[in-house]
Amino acid sequence: MIPDSRLSQQLKSQLKIPVMAGPMFIASTADLAIAQCNAGIIGSMPALNPRTTEALDQDIARIKKNVGDMPYAINLVAHSTNSRLKADLDVVMKHKVPIVVLALAANPDLVRQLQTNGSLVFQDVVKNRHARKCAEMGVDGIIAVGAGAGGHTGNISPFALVQEIREWWEGLLILSGCIANGRSVLAAEALGADLAYIGSPFLASAEADTQDDFKRMIVEGAADDIVTTNCFTGVDANFLKPSLLQHGVDPANLARSEGKGINIDGGGDNAKAWKEIWSAGQGIGAVKRSEPAGEYIDWLVKDYAQARNRMNLVT
Ligand SMILES: Cc1cc2nc3c(=O)[nH]c(=O)nc-3n(C[C@H](O)[C@H](O)[C@H](O)COP(=O)(O)O)c2cc1C
Fold first, then answer.
1. pLDDT (0 to 100) of residue 210
2. pLDDT (0 to 100) of residue 78
3. Predicted confidence (pLDDT) per residue in 147-174, tens digit
4. CA 113, CA 290: separation in Å to the nearest integer?
5. Whole-angstrom Cα distance, residue 200 to residue 202?
6. 264 close to 81: Cβ distance less than 8 angstroms
7. Which atom of ligand 1 is nearest the CA belonging to 27?
């Protein structure tokens, strides 16, 4: 099957490198999204990061004003426990946000409503079966979240996940999980993805709303410092072992949560995860310093060009 490359070509023509930033709860600020876009990738921010819907409205207006024609994305958690969904959706529709990333659950009406209003709709998935459901809903792009990703993670190797989805999906495919350097961006393309999705490296960015200690753990950490557990949110997510230890939680003795279901609205253990117990993916070994996002992206662009040269690909 030949992938339908029109949307891919259109987006890539606007980017310095085929990369989209993964939106991150609490960490991704409007300033981070602006810096990402201005450095040549698709910037993103979760709708829930600004404290209120009014603040979201102001943040999107500021992003729009500062990124020119660059595409940016807002992430809506389309799950019944998100009490702000309706109000935030209205704001996203008002601004005609170019890309909306739907997370966790969605319905075809929501997808159609956003598309009719002019947004591209991307949805993240951790399994081929979920990808088929998204395709049936008519999404414009599928984000395949492989094993080792920061935040809510997949458990399937990207080799298997992309291969299974690419067998039948001709549309835009974005690969997420542990991508942090130029070689990995190129590898994502070689696997069959159009774009690479990068989250955790931006946790160390100057513009991220992350404490200094969190940034330090990203810079000093590597794959061995990451543990997968569903005990905080009901579904598997990756957390930094040093952060668990700081809160007296033994990473070797995490209880499995059975059938608790997912809750993203905060409260109890769930509020503690993300805010106090910090999440990151296995790719953080590539992050060598805390710096402005633009400097990391400039390095990524160079590293990607070098990776292409090493493979004798024309730049
Ligand atoms: C701290 C943190 C918070 C995250 N929050 C969200 C979120 O609110 N919504 C979402 O769709 N993805 C979220 N993600 C997932 C990222 O968008 C992205 O899929 C992931 O970070 C990619 O893997 P990587 O961290 O290995 O690069 C989060 C990831 C991290 C590390």
1. 98
2. 86
3. 999 999 999 999 999 999 999 999 999 9
4. 39
5. 5
6. yes
7. 1
23 in contact with ligand 1, CB cutoff 6 A: yes
Q: What is the secondary structure of 282-296 as a DSSP string? A: GGGGG------HHHH
Verify whether ligand 1 is closer than 6 Å to residue 27 (CB atom): yes
184 lines ligand 1 (CB under 6 A): no
Closest CA to 59 of 88, 29, 22: 29
The values of phi and psi at residue 143, to 5°, are -105, 110
The most confident of 3-17, 66-80, 229-243, 289-303, by mean pLDDT: 289-303
Q: Report residue 2's pLDDT band, with 50, 70 and 90 as the boundaries.
A: very low
210 lines ligand 1 (CB under 6 A): no
* Whether residue 36 has its Cβ less than 6 Å from ligand 1: no
How close is the Cα of 274 to the center of ligand 1, in Å? 10
Q: Is the CB of 158 under 6 A from ligand 1?
A: no
State whether the beta carbon of 199 lies less than 6 angstroms from ligand 1. Answer: yes
* Centroid of ligand 1 to alpha carbon of 91 (angstroms): 22
Topology of the domain comprising 16-209+290-314: TIM Barrel (3.20.20)
Q: Looking at ligand 1, which atom is closest to the CA of residue 48?
A: 8
Delimit the domains of the chain by residue range: 16-209+290-314, 212-267
Q: What's the whole-number mean pLDDT along residues 299-307?
A: 98
Q: Which of 19, 24, 179 to mutate to test the pocket of ligand 1 (most atoms within 8 A of CB)?
A: 24
State pLDDT tens for residues 200-217: 999 999 999 999 999 999
For 118-148, b where at least 16 C-beta lie within 10 A, e where not — what string?
ebbbbbbbbbbebbbebbebebbbbbbbbbb
pTM as predicted: 0.95
pLDDT above 60 (res 270)? no
